[in-house]
Specification:
Elements (H helix, E strand, L loop, with lengths): L20 H15 L5 H13 L3 H11 L17 H16 L1 H13 L6 H10 L1 H10 L9 H11 L3 E6 L2 E6 L2 H12 L5 H12 L8 E3 L2 E5 L9 E2 L13 E2 L1 H13 L3 H9 L2 H10 L2 H14 L4 H12 L1 H6 L4 H14 L13 H11 L5 E4 L11 E6 L5 E6 L5 E6 L3 E6 L4 E7 L7 E5 L4 E5 L4 E5 L5 E5 L6 E6 L4 E6 L4 E6 L6 E6 L16 E8 L2 E6 L4 E6 L4 E7 L5 E7 L3 E10 L3 E10 L5 E6 L9 E3 L5 E8 L4 E8 L5 E8 L2 E8 L2 E6 L4 E5 L18 E6 L6 E6 L5 E5 L11 E3 L8 E5 L2 E10 L8 E10 L4 E6 L13 E4 L2 E5 L6 E5 L5 E5 L3 H9 L5 H11 L5 H6 L2 H24 L7 E4 L5 E5 L4 E6 L4 E7 L3 E10 L5 E8 L4 E8 L4 E7 L4 E6 L6 E5 L3 E5 ...
Antiparallel strand pairs: 1-2, 3-4, 5-6, 7-66, 8-35, 9-10, 10-11, 11-12, 13-14, 14-15, 15-16, 17-18, 18-19, 19-20, 21-22, 22-23, 23-24, 25-26, 26-27, 27-28, 29-30, 30-31, 31-32, 33-34, 34-35, 36-37, 37-38, 38-39, 40-41, 41-42, 42-43, 44-45, 45-46, 46-47, 48-49, 49-50, 50-51, 52-53, 53-54, 54-55, ...
Helix pairs in contact: 1-3, 3-4, 4-5, 4-9, 5-9, 5-10, 10-11, 11-12, 11-14, 13-14, 14-15, 17-18, 20-22
Length: 1171
């Protein structure tokens, strides 16, 4: 209690004097009177004599319970009582063993003592019935019909235990536990201290909770066949009769087994069974995380690793769970995908070095296979695509309810402070991972934290405010809010000076951390001062993360010169000028050096960071320590001895971060601890505890870097990810992956398990960075040699050379010069067939089809509005004219104003409205001349729909090369940003906003007939949509985290909603693909998920660590293929479980990979076909 409540609050504690003998005897008398008992004077004297040796209320109560058993004829000399509570309890237990039988009492109380969270009465009766020592005594005296403990025997014993046991609600059950810790300690001393006794209790408990003897005879001495004991079953979970079996939402988990079984395996020293039945058993671990939580699983792993610290299986699995915390806390069903996505390469490459040698992770081999065939369907990746465990993640601390905003460490590196948007400041003990202090009301906008005043004061910096907090009492000691600019703070002089650099006006102010916190210095940092009455938010000053005594580093942003400020004297004492050009992004001090992190240009498209070292006494330049192109140094951290520098390198583009380490003396540089999310916050004083946190995460990661600093490492290299994945229409087992920046082209066999993680064919160097490369099946079309054609004097730039490469023949099969192909972005070309290429004209006002045989234009698809209008005029009704007349005669007037309007005024108003409507119709007519803004082509390449930033869309038939229909809405601009077409292009669904109704719509068009089939009203924030092949089902996602199913052609209720999961995040890049004839859908919205549209349920979710660059379903939706930004490998996801069947082989092997055996393929291909 004194650790939790500050010592500065003496009123929080009251000293209680010992209860005197007279008071104790008075209380005893009241108890005896209430119980209707009287003791003799001799017996009372014994009680007084014993109570004088231990004047504790609990001891008095125990004496009273013993006195109730004394007959009046018992002389005081025969009474044996100990001088402590434990002694009396020991006497009490001995009497129970004499009265109720030694084996029953010994084993019964031993089981209660050994249990982790107590035992229910039913469990205790089952355990005693399974105990051969107890049952041998029972059968010798009672001879029950069944070999099971008679309930009466336990009931008699339970009555005498009365106050010594207490009923508590544990694991959703009422369990029996010792009512006082002293009672438990006495039972432990009697039953559990002997090394040969305690394991026997834990072993029996482990057998019981492992469900070993349910519905199975247990042998006993003299009977090898054994007999049933009729115990309750202990399954992992049960499913209610009304529940479904597709997921875990209807499962009722057996919390008793999940909590007790690992505990007893560990304490009975059965580590092999612990791994087989619990921690390395997929179904048990899934149930543990789903039913209790990830933290409970961590506790089991920590307990097991304490007992067996060298166990590689448990260490690897524990590290993997740490990395998966974000996904598993929100959705435990992702356990299989997270485990396989991180450990796939580790486990598959774990093979014996020589025949007969053991593998490194034997238990995880079986665990891996169990995960692929789990009871709950999961999207299983084909290769390692998530951050693999590296052994450096020490712990993840969860305590805040909102994202962390700032973090700092104490100077000894053993504690840290974190602030959060939940308005709290927490103090953590890093070794144990527990919160030792929480201060409320610190604000939700804390940008920086400091610790000063001998670790007694926390300093928080907000946008225009600095506050000082007592870490003992939690009260605010001082508020500095008279300055309106944001401050960057640093602690100097061993935490006794608070230094604040005010951004924008370039002023440094210093306060003493003692007394009244007086302002001691105010220094202007530049000659051209800005009035301090203004608010200037830009980061104009770079400040060192720590101080060397009273010396603090600061520099102007984008400068290569830094200054050493003596904050006690308020003047610059040294100027540090970097030898290399660049701009300073971060600085730090060590006992020997001042370190500047400089960013400079490298190879035109990259940036390189260099650490410049200066002597911290003379300011003389020492040397540069080079980094790599993967660095991103915004905050430079150093350990307390100054041997290493650390930076948290975050990548916004990849949604990932890692930790960069420099050895200051050897100049070795490496990256470790790659993890998901963009970690902007970091702190490190001791390499054992390097802290990282993200602005959108409420957990704090702790990394132990000591094991990595001396291991050889490699510097980061820029890796090109995938730009696009193209399905091969002629053979569904193949996909073609295009790397970013026109990198290599790779062919992947996604159906052949043997080829997982390895492309079957790669082509490099086919194109330059300025060329356009298009892929169709095994043909690659390259547009190159961009220049000006000689056809006319004013010809625009064109691609003059067309190359065709055959992936099967591995050579160019065609080269055309003197082509005339208009340059455009790669996505604005469509490879229609082996002989035709479609794209936009140079003016973007029509579509052009080029021949790949001649390189010349063969068709131009232009809008022909006159023919369309003439062809449809006879079929039109008077609806449009009625709408126009309504527009020209409807005024925004009240009925009484209209009645009072004169004939001449009405005529003038009608004339003005007609003119306005005429002008509007003219504007709509002029929109017909707009250029093509975007176009979409149907999957069968038969229909093209173009948008023109106008109130109409144009429909073209590719085969006839003609404009066949116009989709028009006079009150709504029509776009294709959020839209989808049927496979044959017969229908289009898209979002639009009606300017007259002021409502958002989801509109279904019949593209061939040119009219609206159905509209869904008031559908805002739709980010993605898809339509089934027959247009009977439309699925769309909204920013409200739900998926909606619209059946526009159905009668009755046509709209259904599916509630999303917590991490579902529909955005601009989200995609929906309807598969399986409209019965299922694959969704990419931050995560990849598979949905059952018929049952309105989520079948599986996969949460990636890094940002997905490209994504598409394959093989009719039975696989999902995606690519990441930092690797050129593709990843396939398969819905796998014990209930999903294998798929028949489709297509033929084209690239020579058929040399692998069919057995290997069958083993890896099993799980593709959905039931």
């Amino acid at each position: 209690m004194k650790r939790l409540i500050p010592a500065t609050c003496p009123e929080s504690f009251l000293n209680l004097a010992d209860m005197g003998v007279s008071e104790a005897m008075a209380i005893l008398e009241q108890w005896l009177q209430a119980a209707g008992r009287v003791i003799t004077k001799d017996q009372r004297d014994v009680m007084v004599r014993n109570y004088r040796t231990c004047q504790v209320p609990l001891y008095l109560r125990v004496l009273y319970r013993e006195a109730l058993t004394w007959p009046s004829t018992m002389p005081g000399a025969d009474i044996r009582l100990g001088g402590a509570v434990k002694n009396v309890i020991t006497v009490f237990i001995g009497r129970l063993e004499r009265d109720h039988g030694e084996s029953l009492v010994r084993r019964g109380l031993g089981y209660i003592t050994a249990a982790r969270c107590g035992l229910t009465e039913a469990e205790l009766e089952d355990l005693l019935s399974l105990d051969d020592m107890v049952m041998s005594d029972v059968m010798a005296h009672c001879k029950p019909a069944l070999r099971r403990l008679p309930t009466l025997l336990w009931a008699r014993l339970r009555k005498e235990l009365d106050e010594y046991l207490v009923e508590t609600m544990t694991d959703d059950c009422v369990t029996l536990m010792w009512s006082h810790m002293t009672f438990r300690e006495a039972a432990e001393d009697r039953y559990m201290k002997s090394k040969d006794k305690a394991p026997s209790y834990h072993k029996a408990l482990a057998e019981y909770f492992a469900d070993m003897w349910t519905d199975k005879p247990k042998p006993y001495q003299g009977n090898e066949i054994g007999s049933k004991r009729y115990t309750l079953g202990q399954p992992l979970y049960r499913i209610p009769e009304s529940g479904a079996t597709d997921g875990d939402t209807t499962r009722v988990y057996n919390i008793r087994r999940l909590n007790e079984l690992p505990y007893h395996f560990i304490h009975s020293q059965q580590m092999s069974l612990l791994k087989k039945e619990c921690l390395c058993n997929f179904e048990f671990l899934l149930a543990k995380i789903s039913g209790i939580g990830l933290r409970a699983a961590y506790d089991d792993f920590r307990m097991a690793l304490t007992a067996e610290p060298a166990d590689l299986d448990l260490k690897l699995l524990s590290d993997t769970l740490h990395l998966s915390i974000s996904a598993l806390i929100k959705d435990p069903r992702q356990l299989a995908s997270q485990i396989i996505g991180r450990m796939h390469d580790i486990i598959t490459k774990d093979v014996p070095t020589a025949p007969g040698d053991p593998v490194r992770y034997p238990a995880l081999k079986e665990f891996f296979e169990q995960a692929k065939n789990g009871s709950i369907p999961a999207l299983i990746p084909s290769i390692t695509c998530l951050t693999p465990p590296s052994g450096v993640l020490f712990d993840q601390l969860s305590g805040h309810t909102e994202p962390i905003t700032a973090v700092c460490m104490s100077m000894d590196g053993q504690k840290c402070l974190t602030s959060s948007k939940d308005d709290t400041l927490k103090t953590w003990e890093l070794r144990s991972g527990r919160v030792i202090k929480t201060i409320h009301g610190v604000g939700a906008d804390v940008r920086q934290i400091g610790i000063g005043g001998n670790y007694a004061i926390a300093i928080t910096s907000e946008t225009a405010k600095v506050r000082l907090w007592s870490l003992r009492s939690g009260e605010c000691l001082k508020v500095i809010d008279e300055y309106e600019d944001p401050a960057t703070i640093v602690m100097a002089a061993d935490g006794m000076l608070l230094v604040a650099f005010y951004q924008g006006i370039n002023v440094m102010r210093v306060w003493a951390m003692g007394g009244k916190f007086a302002l001691t210095q105010e220094v202007f940092l530049s000659d051209d001062q800005i009035e301090d009455t203004g608010v200037h938010q830009e980061n104009s000053i770079v400040v060192g993360t720590n101080a060397y005594g009273a010396l603090v580093l600061h520099a102007n942003r984008n400068s290569s010169e830094a200054y050493v400020m003596n904050v006690k004297k308020g003047r610059v004492v040294l100027t540090l000028t970097a030898k290399k050009s660049g701009c300073i992004t971060a600085m730090a001090c060590t006992p020997e050096y001042f370190i500047l992190a400089l960013k400079s240009q490298y190879m035109e498209t990259h940036e390189l960071y260099t650490l410049a070292l200066f002597d911290n006494r003379s300011g003389k330049f020492i040397r540069d320590v080079r980094g790599c192109v993967e660095d991103d140094v915004t905050q430079l951290l150093v350990n307390h001895i100054g041997s290493h520098a650390v930076a948290i390198c975050a990548s916004e583009a990849n949604n990932a971060s890692n930790i960069a380490i420099w050895n200051i003396e050897t100049e070795e540089h490496k990256h470790v601890g790659k993890h998901a999310k963009v970690s902007h916050l970091g702190a490190c004083v001791d390499l054992r505890y390097c802290l990282t946190a993200s602005n959108d995460d409420s957990t704090l990661k702790i990394w132990n870097l000591t094991s990595m600093v001396n291991q050889p490492g490699t510097k980061g290299k820029i890796k090109d990810g995938l730009e696009d994945i193209i399905l091969m229409t002629g053979n569904s087992r193949y996909v073609i992956a295009k790397s970013m920046n026109n990198g290599p082209i790779a062919v992947w066999n996604i159906a052949k398990g043997r080829c997982a993680g390895k492309a079957v064919h790669i082509e490099r160097g086919l194109v330059n960075s300025t060329d356009v490369m298009l892929v169709r099946n095994t043909t690659i079309l390259v547009l190159t040699d961009k220049g000006f054609s000689s056809a006319t004097d004013n010809s625009p730039a064109v691609y003059q050379t067309l190359l065709i490469y055959d992936l099967l023949k591995k050579k160019y099969i065609q080269k055309l010069n003197n082509c005339y192909i208009t340059p455009a972005l790669p996505h604005e070309y469509v490879f229609l067939s082996d002989e035709q290429l479609m794209g936009l004209s140079d003016t973007h006002n029509h579509l052009v089809v080029w021949s790949t045989s001649t390189g010349r234009v063969v068709h131009r698809m232009k809008a022909n509005f006159r023919d369309i209008e003439k062809r449809t005029r006879d079929a039109e009704t008077s609806e449009a004219d009625q709408r126009r007349r309504k527009r020209a005669t409807t005024a925004k007037m009240s009925p009484w104003d209209r009645r009072a309007e004169s004939e001449s005024a009405r005529a003038r108003r009608h004339h003005e409205e007609i003119l306005i409507e005429k002008q509007r119709m003219d504007d709509l007519h002029h929109e017909k001349d707009n250029i093509i803004e975007q176009f979409k082509i149907s999957s069968d390449l038969s229909t093209v729909i173009t948008s023109h930033y106008a109130h109409h869309l144009c429909v073209f038939d590719v085969q006839s090369q003609s404009h066949v229909q116009t989709l028009e809405n006079h009150s709504s601009m029509l776009f294709l940003y959020t839209s989808a077409m049927t496979v044959n292009g017969s229908h289009l669904v898209h979002t639009n906003y009606d300017e007259e109704a002021k409502l958002s719509y989801l509109t279904l068009w019949d593209a061939r007939e040119g009219y609206v089939r159905k509209r869904l009203r008031n559908e805002k924030n739709v980010t993605c949509v898809d339509i089934s092949n027959d247009a009977s089902r439309i699925v769309f996602g909204k920013s409200t985290k739900e998926l909606r199913i619209w059946e526009p052609l159905a009668h009755g209720r046509s709209m259904r909603r599916i509630k999303g999961y917590p991490t579902l995040n529909f955005g601009d890049h989200s995609q929906i693909h309807i598969i399986d004839d409209g019965r299922r859908a694959v969704v990419y919205a931050g995560d990849i998920s598979l949905w059952d549209l018929e049952d309105a349920a989520v079948l599986g979710v996969f949460t990636p660590d890094m940002r997905i660059q490209c994504f598409t379903p394959a093989m009719g939706g039975r696989l999902v293929v995606f690519g990441l930004q930092d690797t050129s490998d593709i990843v396939t996801l398969r819905l796998m479980s014990s209930r999903h069947k294998a798929i028949e082989k489709t297509g033929q092997d084209l690239f020579g990979e058929s040399v692998s055996s069919d057995e290997d393929d069958e083993e890896m291909e099993a799980q593709l076909e959905l039931e």
